[in-house]
Amino acid sequence: MTTNPLEQALYQVKRTIVGQDVLLERMAVCLLARGHLLVEGVPGLAKTMAIKTLAATIGGQFQRIQFTPDLVPADVVGTRLYNQKTGEFETALGPVFANLLLADEINRAPAKVQSALLEVMQERQVTIGRTTYPAPDPFLVMATQNPIESEGTYPLPEAQVDRFMLKVLVGYPTVAEEYVVVERMTSPLVATEQALSLDDLRRMQSQADAVYVDPGVISYAVSLVGATRNPESVGQGHLARFITYGASPRASINLILAARALAFLRGRDFVLPTDVAELSGDVLRHRVVLSYEALAEDLTADDLLEPLVAAVPQPPIVMRDRAEDRPPVDEVAYQRPVT
Question: What domains can be seen in the chain, in order of their start residue?
Answer without folding.
Answer: 5-186 (3.40.50.300), 210-336 (1.10.8.80)
